[in-house]
Design a protein that fits this description.
3 domains; Double Stranded RNA Binding Domain; three-stranded antiparallel β-sheet; alpha+beta; flat; Alpha-Beta Plaits; eight-stranded mixed β-sheet
């Protein structure tokens, strides 16, 4: 099926869905069809304009060659012809981008995990700064940022920090942040003024629903304990902290941020489902991408993706060779310049593979 046949088929399907939506009384079907129609809106809008432009091009060409028309009408047709001919390639390219299969997880909420890597206490301090950077970014988008777990160090850094980010399209934008983030700066404890390099790892996972992962209760080992450390001081007198181990995989999660043991259990289960769902996605992604050379959006968490150089005030994303000299703004959550460039690069790669 060529490009125009595919586009015509999509427009016909869109019309048919609208007819079915007007006739059905089934609530579940209404929700399902409404969601599908919404996902097609951009393609239908741009595609309709494209087909009209194609027809306009044909009509203008016929008028140009119609000897019954006067010179003024033929000139108008010629101007229209070349104007449409110039616009059509951009319209076709835009449609091709819209036709790239979307990751169904892009609209999901996110489980964000930030962990200190190499560099000791300096790495933990950097992990805390990255965690706050994403909190600020979430706020700029109007998303909800809820801390699920904090493992703080004595100097205020984080060995590990986990949060839930809720908002439209959260995973679709944040998924490019997964990987190793490297920092270069002079630690406060360094008397000689030497620049040290430390690192923290970021994992961005699409939040899983109960229907995504089936968990057998017999496979779980659930223990309670008293919360401790930063964030848990208010519940130290009760066994409210929850730890859950999924025995078949060995995946362990814990939550202590709530006063209620039941709320902590619910959040721990949500995080466990997300980790198991992510394992499934990573396996599928690895199989699909085994022959790819470029995987900007792969979420490989062992890959060094970005360097934050404090002495020079610059941030460099190594996947797209992009550097900005606005480090303070980036650390305050101004990430859109990187994220937009990464989305574009990912789309170009997928378009080349299509």
């Amino acid at each position: 099926m060529d490009f125009e046949q595919k586009l015509t088929s999509i427009l016909a399907h869109y019309d048919e869905l609208n007819k079915q939506l007007a006739e059905t009384m089934d609530t579940a079907e209404i929700i399902k069809m409404s969601k599908e129609l919404k996902s097609m809106e951009d393609v239908v809008r741009v595609g309709g304009d494209y087909l009209k432009a194609k027809q306009g091009l044909t009509d203008a060409e016929q008028m140009m060659n119609d000897n019954s028309l006067d010179a003024e009408m033929k000139q108008m047709a010629t101007d229209e012809y070349y104007s449409l001919k110039e616009k059509l390639p951009d319209m076709e390219r835009q449609i091709q981008l819209l036709l790239i299969p979307k990751d169904e997880a892009d609209e999901r909420n996110v489980i964000l995990e930030v962990r200190a890597g190499t560099g000791g206490e300096e790495a933990a301090l950097f992990a805390e700064e990255l965690f706050r950077m994403y909190e600020h970014y979430a706020a700029s988008k109007g998303w909800r940022f809820e801390v699920l777990s904090l493992n703080a160090t004595g100097l205020g850094g984080y060995k590990e920090a986990v949060a839930q980010i809720s908002g439209d399209g959260a995973f679709g934008r944040l998924k490019y942040e997964s990987g190793v983030h490297r920092v270069q700066r002079v630690p406060e404890t360094e008397s000689g003024g030497r620049v040290h390099t430390s690192a923290a790892t970021v994992a961005v996972l699409p939040e899983a629903q109960e229907v995504d992962v089936q968990i057998n209760p017999d496979d779980l080992e659930i223990t309670t304990c008293r919360a401790s450390g930063a964030g848990g001081q208010h519940v130290n007198k009760t066994d409210s902290a929850i730890r859950i181990v999924h025995k078949p995989t060995g995946v362990a999660v814990e939550c202590q941020e709530e006063r209620s043991q039941f709320k902590n259990k619910d959040k721990a289960m949500m995080r466990l489902r997300t980790l198991l769902y992510d394992m499934q996605r990573q396996k599928l992604d690895a199989e699909r991408a085994s022959d790819r050379k470029n995987q900007v959006g792969s979420g490989d968490r062992s890959e060094r993706i970005r360097t934050y150089n404090f002495p020079q005030g610059r941030v460099t994303d190594h996947r797209i060779n992009k550097t900005v000299y606005q480090l303070p703004a980036v650390m305050e959550g101004d990430l859109d310049e990187f994220i937009e460039a990464l989305i574009t690069e990912d789309q170009m790669n997928k378009l080349a593979e299509a």
